[in-house]
Hints:
Pfam families: Cupin_3. The protein is mainly beta.
Amino acid sequence: MSHMLQFALTSAEAEVGAPAADRLISGTPEFRTWNLEEAPGGLYAGVWESTPGKWLIVYDEWEYFHILTGRSIVTEEGGEAVHLGAGDSMVLRPGFKGTWEVVETTRKEYVIRV
Length: 114
């Protein structure tokens, strides 16, 4: 086994999903997720994409992500909206509660640690 991981979408099938109905605020967003790494101990890495919409998010894990394309707005409960576009990166820490709004279909690379 190699100790390197290249983010090549050809190496994984996309999983299709959507926000849970009780978290959906607006739109009809559809997710595509290419989970490229699932390591023991709860580490995940891959690529995620969503069509426009807005939903509630709650994090019990750490997530680092880097926006590849599109535009989104992430807003922490009681905080300011953060506008994100291609080239932007962010870490969401355990305990984060807020909203994710995809304004323009957004694709990101992610690493999640449970």
